[in-house]
Design a protein that fits this description.
This protein has 4 helices and no strands. The chain is mostly helical and 99 residues long. Keywords: Membrane, Transmembrane, Transmembrane helix.
């Protein structure tokens, strides 16, 4: 008789717990935190510094022998003057002032 009472009580408790767990909702930040915690614990055997470490040596591939043309103030002024001369020669500037 005691086995039946204990069995019924356990079954009742399991059904009540199942109904409570079915209606239980966790907020989104808890899910995000749990996912981050799960990913950290599943990769705990790996060292976190290995994620960012480079195993191969870093070689310098850039070369400073070819110096690019740098736009200086003199070359900028010269290019602006050349552009002005082209505008004057084409007559665009004069046609705008006829109004």
């Amino acid at each position: 008789m005691k086995v039946w009472v204990v069995g019924c009580v356990l079954l009742f408790l399991l059904v009540e717990f199942y109904q409570w767990a079915k209606g239980f909702i966790l907020p989104l930040p808890i899910y995000i935190f749990a996912g981050a915690l799960l990913s950290i614990t599943s990769n705990y055997s790996q060292d976190m510094s290995n994620l960012f470490a480079r195993n191969e040596p870093v070689d310098q591939t850039a070369s400073l022998t070819d110096i690019p043309d740098i736009l200086t103030a003199e070359t900028a002024i010269a290019s602006l003057e050349a552009a002005d001369q082209k505008i004057v020669k084409s007559g665009i500037a004069e046609s705008r002032h006829e109004y």
